[in-house]
Specification:
Length: 128
């Protein structure tokens, strides 16, 4: 499982040298979740001013404790400007805001493992 997580982080970080997350930072985000069903943590690797004119991207991790006790973790990237959501951009349709616990929980309970070119979803704990 560690290899899968490292592979997803590498894909999400891409070739960027800034606004990336390493394994230690990933582990710290996951540790924030705890064991209570519905608990979640959404973090990014930093942002730039919304007035910044260049392209900006940041690595993001969304970790959610499912009702079955396992952990659904989405690893990807999103726009790096202030105010951008701390979830992979490809989850925008499934999770409109990470401020809505019921919406985040519904996504987590339905989430399946997937590997994408730019990140993916991993389910930790229990049978894979």
């Amino acid at each position: 499982m560690n290899d899968v997580i490292d592979k997803l982080l590498k894909a999400a970080n891409g070739r960027r040298r800034t606004r990336t997350l390493d394994r230690q930072q990933f582990d710290a985000i996951v540790a924030q979740v705890g064991s209570k069903a519905g608990a979640f943590a959404a973090e990014n690797a930093g942002q730039v001013s919304s007035s910044y004119q260049g392209r900006s991207e940041t690595t993001v991790v969304l970790a959610v404790r499912r009702t079955d006790g396992r952990l659904a973790v989405a690893i990807g990237s999103n726009h790096g400007k202030q105010g951008s959501a701390s979830r992979p951009f490809w989850l925008a349709q499934a999770i409109r805001t990470t401020k809505s616990a019921p919406q985040v929980m519904a996504w987590a309970d339905a989430a399946l493992p997937v590997t994408r070119e730019d990140g993916g979803i991993v389910i930790l704990g229990g049978a894979q």
